[in-house]
Amino acid sequence: MKISRIELIEIKMPLVHFFETSFGRTYERRIILARVETANGAEGWGECTAGETPSYCEEWTESCWAILKDILSPMILNREIESAAQVWDLMRKIRGNRMAKATLETAIWDLEAKQLNVPLWKHLGGVNREIDCGVSIGIQDSVEQLFEKIQTELDAGYKRIKIKIAPHWDYEVIRRVRERFGDILLMGDANSAYTLEDIDLLKSLDEFDLMMLEQPLAHDDIVDHAKLQQAIKTPICLDEPIHSADDARKAIELKSGKIINLKNGRVGGHSESKRIEAICRENSIPVWCGGMLESGIGRAHNIAISTLAGYTLPGDVSASKRYWREDIIEPAVEVTKEGAIIASEKPGIGFEVKRDRIDKLAVRRVETNG
After folding, report:
1. Sorted alphabetically, which keywords does the UniProt record give (predicted)?
2. Torsion-angle region of 104 (φ positive above 0: left; ψ -120 to 50: alpha; else: beta)
3. Closest to 317 (Cα-Cα) out of 264, 242, 240
């Protein structure tokens, strides 16, 4: 196939409720969408998962817009592409910028699946059409407010509750959640808020039988995490430092953690996610799909990749209504009362993109034509 047109659109979407982590609060998402098109009018959609500031990683909205427009799009345009799996190699000489690369890479996977008239999840090699869902709940203004949100999500059927933690919001909060909700599937996500100097505190969390403790130490570390994992019973889940299959291999060899959170954007798209999933599955390391407050397009891609065999734990792939009053896809993503999402049998991402909604939300756009 040959991409004859690439359209980049930035939209602004207000969240239903603020989302707070150790990085700060988010009230509104700035999201870059990519639409790729062939000469015969076939199209695919991708989404950039970068945040508004370079806090989760070095990439952010402005950096991704610039490199997508000026560097990556020209590398893809008018090239003969044998398959979507080849797109990563076309961009390989550009270091890093994985979230920007994933924006185009996933769009071309969607395009290719539509051309083949197959659901994206099947095209990626998925085997589990029904995926279990968990939710991620940010830091709240009070523990009582946290209780309300947890109860709402449990009533909605979600199978796993993840709560964000930080030095001012950890042991006592988790203790009270366990006291209030008993043996629910519960995990804590620290977003790199601690160091090995906090090892006694982190050890104390063992008493709460958490499913996992996600990325407690530095965002780029796998060495100190190995030391911490030796010292605590709670499984450590690695997030930010895993950018590639090679990173996953090294972390597994060092025994830096027992679980990996796989985010499409962080690793550069579906092709690298598939490689990491394979390595983890071969080494009996469970993976699950993390979320980055995506719109429906990014969420649809997350659903598709989560059907691979190695995704054995509930991910952060939840219903559209948890974040948006109106999504940019139809139908909106919904979760069954049993806490699962059923992957669509329609071609590509399986949802219709609401172009009129995108146009209303758009704050800038640029087109590159062949």
Report:
1. Lyase, Magnesium, Metal-binding
2. alpha
3. 264
SS3 342: strand
Across the range 236-241, mean pLDDT stands at 97
pLDDT of residue 370: 64
Segment 75-101 shows an average pLDDT of 95
Q: Which fold has domain 122-342?
A: TIM Barrel (3.20.20)
Going by C-alpha positions, the residue among 85, 87, 83, 107 that lies closest to residue 33 is: 107
User: Backbone phi, then psi, for 226, in 5-degree steps?
Assistant: -65, -40
Average pLDDT, the chain: 95
Question: Exposed, middle or buried by CB within 10 Å (0-12, 13-18, 19+), for 358?
Answer: buried
d(CA 26, CA 16): 11
Distance CA 222, CA 200 (A): 19
Catalytic sites, residue numbers? 164, 263
Domain spanning 3-117+354-369: CATH superfamily:
Enolase-like, N-terminal domain (3.30.390.10)
Q: Are 301 and 270 in contact (CB under 8 A)?
A: yes
Burial class (CB in 10 A: 0-12, 13-18, 19+), 123: buried
Tokens standing for residue 19: 């989302």
